[in-house]
Amino acid sequence: MSKKGILLVNLGTPDSTSVGDVRKYLREFLMDKRVIDIPFLNRWMLVNLIIAPLRSPKSAKEYLRLFDEKGSPLKYFGFEVRDKLRRELNDDYRVELAMRYQNPSLKEGLDALKTCSSIHVIPLFPQYASATTGSVIDKVMEITKTWQVIPDLKFTAQFFEEDLFLETIADNAKKLMSATNYDHFLFSYHGIPERQITKASVDEYCTFGDCCASINEKNKYCYRAQCFATTKLLAQKLELNEESYSVTFQSRLGKTPWIQPYTDEALKDLATKGIKKVLAFSPAFISDCLETTVEVGETYQEDFKAAGGQQWDLVPSLNAEDKWVDCLKTIVLR
Q1: pLDDT number for residue 248
Q2: What is the pTM of this model?
Q3: What is 192-226 written as a DSSP string?
């Protein structure tokens, strides 16, 4: 009997911290039409003539702060999760790991599951966005459409409401909260351009305001609304009152409007208001990466203290926590 294929897919990481490998990664990542959604020629010139050449040396230095003796945490934790999930599932399943950009490639992961009776693709992004989950689905369809035999395909578009996902984050937070009495809790999500939200808006429902206050049929795939929903669910787990936490968005690029409020501006406002101790969360990421460890954990800590704050801690990512693996098992077996 053919096995059922499970493909875990994360964003990706450079093969090394060399400028050449970082440049290669940035080019593949930023040339994705769902990431920088402008006409091809404009995107090609922007990425290959400006962003990749200019940002690669700086980004390579940042990756040096992230990589350790085992390499990229996003990659080695990914393999650890894959191996744990393999052990949790029975012999009816075959589990592989792939990256949307660089290695192990999405094609490599799919090819390993080509003879399976079905393939369940799980993009490892809790909230749906066109530039992440949408891009993975797009690429999977592009690859498999050339196969003579296409097995049953299934996608998990988002999982921010999964109880074990939320519990793992809450458990990690409680360990820090037991040692420190924090003044404020900041939930920082990766930002995206406002136009990507607007293009996906049903009946022009999106206003970037109260429309994100709750999830409904019109905004159930709105990334911003899902981020607010994730925060509310985590706040309930941690018994936080509404005045004690805020939602912000990080990592904006370029001059066009991105979804707000911006994390780098919000943390300075907190400091000027007398907030001294902040516990930061990164619930859009399941693994340590540049945006969590370096940006939120180190750069924002420095900025907060420079603005007058005293303590800035980051809740650890899910990485290869057993409860997180149990969450993936639940999604697979459902």
Answers
A1: 98
A2: 0.96
A3: -BHHHHHHT-GGG---SSGGGSS--TTTTT-HHHH
In CATH, which of 3.90.550.10, 3.40.50.12500, 3.40.50.1400, 3.30.70.930 is domain 163-314? 3.40.50.1400
Q: Is 254 helix (H, G, I), strand (E, B) or coil?
A: coil
What are the phi and psi torsion angles at 122 (to 5°)? -120, 95
Mean pLDDT score, 7-35: 98
Angle, in degrees to the nearest 10, between helices 52-66 and 19-30: 110
Residue 271 CB: number of other CB atoms within 10 A? 20
C-alpha–C-alpha distance, residues 30 and 325, integer Å? 30
Average pLDDT of the residues in 180-206:
90
Q: Convert the pLDDT of each residue in 64-80 to its tens digit.
A: 999 999 999 999 999 99
Location of each CATH 3.40.50.1400 domain in the chain: 4-159+322-333, 163-314
Strands in 118-123's sheet, in edge-to-edge order, are 93-101, 4-12, 118-123, 152-155
pLDDT tens string 149-177: 999 999 999 999 999 999 999 999 999 99
Whether a cis peptide bond, with omega within 30° of 0, leads into 123 is: no
The architecture in CATH of the region 4-159+322-333 reads: 3-Layer(aba) Sandwich (3.40)
Q: How far apart are CA 150 and CA 300, in angstroms?
A: 46
What would the two tokens of residue 133 be?
A: 């989950």
Q: Which long-range contacts (CB under 8 A, 24 or more apart) does 61-64 make?
A: 62/290, 62/294, 63/14, 63/17, 63/22, 63/290, 64/17
CA distance 78 to 95: 12
Q: In which band, very low, low, confident or very high, does the pLDDT at 199 lie, cut at 50, 70 and 90?
A: confident
Task: Report the relative pairing of strands 245-250 and 277-281 from DSSP bridges.
Answer: unpaired
- Residue 39, classified by CB atoms within 10 Å of its CB into exposed (0-12), middle (13-18) or buried (19+), is exposed
